From TrEMBL:
<keyword id="KW-0560">Oxidoreductase</keyword>
<dbReference type="GO" id="GO:0016616">
    <property type="term" value="F:oxidoreductase activity, acting on the CH-OH group of donors, NAD or NADP as acceptor"/>
</dbReference>
<comment type="similarity">
    <text>Belongs to the 3-beta-HSD family.</text>
</comment>
<protein>
    <recommendedName>
        <fullName>3-beta hydroxysteroid dehydrogenase/isomerase domain-containing protein</fullName>
    </recommendedName>
</protein>
<dbReference type="InterPro" id="IPR050177">
    <property type="entry name" value="Lipid_A_modif_metabolic_enz"/>
</dbReference>
<dbReference type="GO" id="GO:0006694">
    <property type="term" value="P:steroid biosynthetic process"/>
</dbReference>
<feature type="domain" description="3-beta hydroxysteroid dehydrogenase/isomerase">
    <location>
        <begin position="8"/>
        <end position="248"/>
    </location>
</feature>
<dbReference type="InterPro" id="IPR036291">
    <property type="entry name" value="NAD(P)-bd_dom_sf"/>
</dbReference>
<dbReference type="Pfam" id="PF01073">
    <property type="entry name" value="3Beta_HSD"/>
</dbReference>
<dbReference type="InterPro" id="IPR002225">
    <property type="entry name" value="3Beta_OHSteriod_DH/Estase"/>
</dbReference>
């Protein structure tokens, strides 16, 4: 019988990486975290910086990792044009991970990518963040088969849920400001928001399939879009979040007002204090097919969007009550 993997989750202390760790723990796997922070104590955390090659190598050697799950990336929201940070972390950091994995004889590497890109890659990326993630993804795919390393990329669309520092934080801040009646675009654009736990589930499916002789050739070197298979108008989704805040904080509920609709073309001109990236994100249709993931990985969403919103609101209230969410 094949020996079980030892997992090293890069970025395993926050958001998607944290959900991967929880699911690995739940099924009894041996798992370590590599991160610059440590908020949780249920697994051993190796402190380190993805931009420091020796620290990655030391973490692999210390843990004996046979499978690396790479979820580290700077936040795109509010930091969209920080080219130096994105390139250093997403591109150079990912290159460091690949080189360390090859040198150590790691067998598997699964990368948590971004759905800001498309296949084939667009000639003009949505922004510097998307450009850096696309380059990182190409590095991961190119590394497949080198020194026995098998790689795969998971691309979630509109990931959100407990631990979210992007979508939920932005929605909460607009709710607190009382600007929930402002709408960019006509809200006909569909988006497929994906529960973070479903993304973690897909990552582990890919990892497992890379060890399956009957499936590895279909998974290694491949990219898989992961969605909740429930595309909704963008502003309908946002209003669901705001209604959730109203429900858990009824004394601060927002007043019901008719939407003030700003046409997309005008919003792009008047982007400040927003950004063209933010306007595009809120007004563009962004949903993809996860049929390939269903067919090859056996992926299906485990948690619905509505249930995810409920779970997220429970988490938000607990975080606010303890002073961790402002």
């Amino acid at each position: 019988m094949a020996s079980k993997d030892v997992y090293l989750v890069l970025g395993g202390d926050v958001f998607a990486g944290r959900h991967v760790v929880e699911q690995l723990n739940a099924r009894g796997d041996t798992v370590f975290v590599f991160d610059s922070t440590q908020r949780h104590n249920d697994v051993e955390c190796v402190a380190g910086d993805i931009c420091a090659p020796d620290q990655i190598s030391n973490a692999i050697q210390k843990t004996g990792a046979t499978c690396i799950i790479h979820t580290i990336s700077p936040l795109s929201i509010g930091n969209h044009d920080n080219l130096s940070v994105f390139h250093r972390v997403n591109v150079e950091g990912t290159r460091n991970v690949i080189e360390a994995a090859k040198a150590a004889g790691v067998q598997k590497l699964v990368y948590h990518g971004s759905s800001d890109e498309s296949l084939p890659y667009p000639k003009k990326p949505m922004g510097q963040y998307a450009a850096s993630r696309a380059l990182a993804e190409q590095l991961i795919i190119a590394a497949n088969g080198v020194n026995g390393l098998k790689t795969a990329c998971i691309r979630p669309t509109g990931i959100f849920g407990p631990g979210d520092q992007g979508t939920i934080d932005g929605a909460y801040k607009s709710w607190k400001r009382g600007t929930v009646h402002v709408q960019l675009g006509n809200s006909k654009n569909l988006c497929d928001k994906t529960y973070v736990g479903n993304v973690a589930h897909a990552i582990l499916l890919a990892s497992d399939k890379l060890s399956d002789p009957a499936a590895v050739d279909q998974v290694a070197g491949q990219i898989f879009f992961i969605t909740n298979n429930d595309p909704r108008p963008f502003w309908d989704f946002m209003r669901s979040l705001w209604a959730g805040f109203d429900a858990i904080f009824p004394d601060r509920a927002t007043k019901k007002r008719s939407p003030v609709v700003i046409p997309r073309s005008l919003a792009l001109v008047l982007a400040y204090p927003l950004t063209p990236y933010t306007v595009t994100f809120a007004t563009a249709t962004m949903y993809f097919s996860s049929a390939k993931a269903a067919r090859v990985l056996g992926y299906a969403p485990q948690v619905s969007v509505d249930e995810d919103i409920e779970r997220t609101m429970t988490w938000v209230k607990a975080e606010i009550d303890t002073g961790n969410f402002k």
